[in-house]
C-alpha cells in the first residue's frame, strides 16, 4: 500500500515539474541568447571571405558561376531576308501612260444617185439618163452620168453632154446646182441630165 502511494506521489511530482519547466520564460530567452552558427571560411583562418569571393571563377555577388557550355547560342536572323525598310524612302508607282485611241475619223465624202429619166424629144425617146454626184460636207465635188443614150448620133450628143457636165472641174461642180446650160444639139439628153441631177441634190442636202 505504501509503495503504491509513493508511486502515485512521484508521478504527480514529475508532471508538475515538467509543466513548470515549459511555462518558464527563462527557457525561451536562453534559447534566443545562444550564439548563431558562423559560416565556415573555406580558405582557412586569416583569409578574407570577401577576397575569396572575388577570386577567378567566382561571382562577386556570391552566386555560383554558370558553365559556358550550358548557355544557349544566340539566334541570328536568316541570311538573305531583310525585313527593315530604309527610313526616309517612299516608293511611288509611276503613273501609267494615257491610252491613245487611233480611231480614224469617219469620212464625210458620200455618193448620192439621182432618179433616172428618159431623154424624149417630140415623142421620140433617145435613151435613159441617170446621174450620180459625190458630196463632201455640204459641197458637190464630182458628178458622173451612170447612164446616157447610145447608138447612132446619140453617142455624139451624149459625149458632148458628158464633157460639159461630168467631172470635178465641169459645170455641175462649178455651179453647185442643176441650173446648167443646155448642150447644143442634145436638148433632150441635157434636160434628162438636169432632172436626174436635181433629184440627187435633193437627196444629198
TrEMBL record:
Q: Which GO terms describe its cellular component?
A: membrane
Q: Where is the composition biased (Polar residues)?
A: 30-41, 67-77, 84-112
Q: Which InterPro entries match?
A: FMN-bd
Q: What keywords appear on the UniProt entry?
A: Signal
Q: Where does the signal sequence lie?
A: 1-19
Q: Name one GO molecular function term.
A: FMN binding
Q: Where is the composition biased (Low complexity)?
A: 44-66
Q: Please give the name of this protein.
A: FMN-binding domain-containing protein
Amino acid at each position: 500500500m505504501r509503495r503504491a502511494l509513493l508511486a502515485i506521489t512521484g508521478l504527480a511530482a514529475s508532471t508538475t515539474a515538467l509543466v513548470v519547466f515549459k511555462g518558464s520564460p527563462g527557457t525561451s530567452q536562453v534559447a534566443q541568447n545562444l550564439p548563431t552558427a558562423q559560416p565556415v571560411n573555406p580558405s582557412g583562418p586569416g583569409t578574407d571571405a570577401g577576397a575569396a569571393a572575388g577570386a577567378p571563377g567566382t561571382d562577386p555577388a556570391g552566386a555560383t558561376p554558370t558553365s559556358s557550355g550550358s548557355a544557349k547560342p544566340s539566334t541570328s536572323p536568316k541570311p538573305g531576308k531583310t525585313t527593315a525598310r530604309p527610313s526616309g524612302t517612299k516608293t511611288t508607282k509611276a503613273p501609267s501612260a494615257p491610252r491613245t485611241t487611233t480611231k480614224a475619223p469617219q469620212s464625210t465624202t458620200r455618193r448620192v444617185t439621182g432618179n433616172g429619166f428618159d431623154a424624149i424629144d417630140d415623142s421620140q425617146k433617145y435613151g435613159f439618163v441617170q446621174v450620180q454626184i459625190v458630196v463632201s460636207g455640204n459641197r458637190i465635188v464630182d458628178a458622173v452620168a451612170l447612164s446616157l443614150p447610145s447608138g447612132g448620133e446619140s453617142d455624139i450628143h451624149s459625149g458632148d453632154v458628158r464633157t460639159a457636165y461630168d467631172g470635178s472641174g465641169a459645170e455641175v461642180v462649178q455651179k453647185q446646182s442643176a441650173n446648167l446650160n443646155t448642150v447644143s444639139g442634145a436638148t433632150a439628153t441635157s434636160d434628162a441630165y438636169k432632172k436626174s441631177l436635181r433629184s440627187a441634190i435633193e437627196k444629198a442636202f
